[in-house]
Please model this.
Amino acid sequence: MKNIDTYNFTDKKVIVRVDFNVPLNDKFEITDDTRIRAAIPTIQKIREGGGAVILMSHLGRPKNGPEEKFSLKHIITDLSEKLGTDVQFANNCIGAEAVAKASKLKAGEVLLLENLRFYKEETKGDKAFAEKLAALADVYMNDAFGTAHRAHASTAIIAQFFPTEKMFGYVMNNELASINKVLKEGEKPVTAVLGGAKVSGKIEIINSLLSKVDNIVIGGGMMFTFIKALGGQIGNSLVENDLIETAKAAMQKADEMNVTFYIPTDAVIADKFDNNANIKTCQAGEIPDGWMGLDIGPETIRTFSDVIENSATILWNGPMGVFEMDNFSKGTIEIAQAIARSTSKGAYSLVGGGDSVAAVNKYNLANEVSYVSTGGGAMLEFLEGKTLPGVAAITPSA
Ligand code: AMP
Model:
């Protein structure tokens, strides 16, 4: 494996797997350019080092070949502006046009290939397809953390055609460094704050984190399965009855491993799943029938904030309540603010996973935490302790 910071890119053609899977509106305008912005330092580093850049990505989920709405041509103007150069485009990611344009590419120039997923071979991890992509370049770089948990042609299979000339870009390096900072080198006490709708999506993460953290703080819809497991009354709150034993086992294992489990003591409850419902606060284990818990309560916010502010390392995944509705967003806002305060006092904080990232952005706190992960699913699988194919293809020992 090579290092982007020390590699000599002079006269090399570098094929970079980026994550340009950006949302487009019905006029094909980019509504959130975060992922494009994230890739710029990597691309500029190669250009400044005298290399030529071939960019490949997916966009959306095309089902049967090319589709206008999933064309990467919609991002050419934006990308060209951000890079300060005219980005060339190949209307097909493989074939004669891509080969001709790639072969003519000069130092500092950038070629964007059309959506990889116009070929079903991409997601199938087809070797012959990967080989055609590989033939366009001298060096392979993976900078798409968001798809690192997939063994696709461009994210993993292609690496075998570059036995030595392969490396991560800055997005990948930063993501991996930030996760390691929490899970491997985290200064104690290490606290994981977990929320979101369901225990089922998070139980593997909880079990994997037990050997790595000092505190596990539970909020969101999944708290009610834990509260019921402890004998509480949860009314009509979200619950996964088939996971009650699993929740009990996780709490017991935490006890044995000296990990403190924090379950909410009070909740904001509503008589329907609606921002305009009747709302009150009650003990988390005493929710009347006909009512459902939709956020953590004020006492819980104080307890959780204390734990967070006394932590040296914090991982946050998943909202504390139904934060999309204003009346149930207080728990998520205040926990995000506690993480920001703790960070300003020197803690290292990593926010990862779709909805908590949406929350820190919504409350303008993205710059007040140490790192905001760009890869939802990939981050979750990493936290579950799984090996990511996109990472292993470049560093087999990872
Ligand atoms: P996840 O995708 O599993 O991280 O879950 C995120 C979703 O969980 C968000 O859309 C929240 O609205 C939802 N959520 C959080 N707390 C609750 C709750 N108490 N009841 C129902 N849904 C919730």
